[in-house]
Amino acid sequence: MKRRRWLRLWLMLGLLMLGNQCRADVVASYGAKVKFKKGAVMKFADFDLRYVGQRKVATPTFSRGMVFEDFQASKGSEKVMVSWSAGTGDIGPVGFEVGGGRFQLELRLADRIGRLKENELVVRRR
Questions:
Q1: Cβ atoms of 123 and 104 closer than 8 Å
Q2: Which of 43, 97, 98, 110 could form a disulfide with 73 if both were Cys (CB 3.0 to 4.6 A apart)?
Q3: Which of 102, 66, 104 is nearest to 85 (CA)?
Q4: Are 55 and 38 in contact (CB under 8 A)?
Q5: What is the 3-state secondary structure (H, E, C) of the chain?
């Protein structure tokens, strides 16, 4: 009987410790692949980045429309919208400024890493 109690106690302690590790804030690295999903916040050393979602914009010149991937960068009360699009095929980084710093967001293709999966991005300091 005592053995079961000890086993339960150790199991509960282990689960509590594992739960605390899962909640710890992990800071994403600049220049490395970072996975993202809608609504999730990615913490970088200088700001937080949240994926807002996709939107399609059609113009008279490009009636098929372009798909934009929207993110919100924030530092304290400052919030900046960052919109990336491959547009008509030129896949390049989009620059943005937040918290006094200048950064680049890359999707689909990172200059130094290569191809990225649909749910991966790279952020670099400029």
A1: yes
A2: 98
A3: 66
A4: no
A5: CHHHHHHHHHHHHHHHHHHHHHHCCCECCCCCCEECCCCCEEECCCCEEEEEEEEEECCCCCCCCEEEEEEEEEECCEEEEEEECCCCCCCCCEEEEECCEEEEEEECEECCCEECCCCEEEEEEC
Two structure tokens written together for 38: 């809608």
For residue 103, the number of C-alpha atoms closer than 13 Å in the C-beta half-sphere is 26
Q: What is the pLDDT of residues 15-51, one digit of tens each?
A: 555 544 444 467 999 999 999 999 999 999 999 999 9
Here the tokens at position 110 are 């990172």
- Give the amino acid at 94: V
> Can you give the residue ranges of every domain in the chain?
32-125
Closest CA to 68 of 80, 81, 77, 57: 57
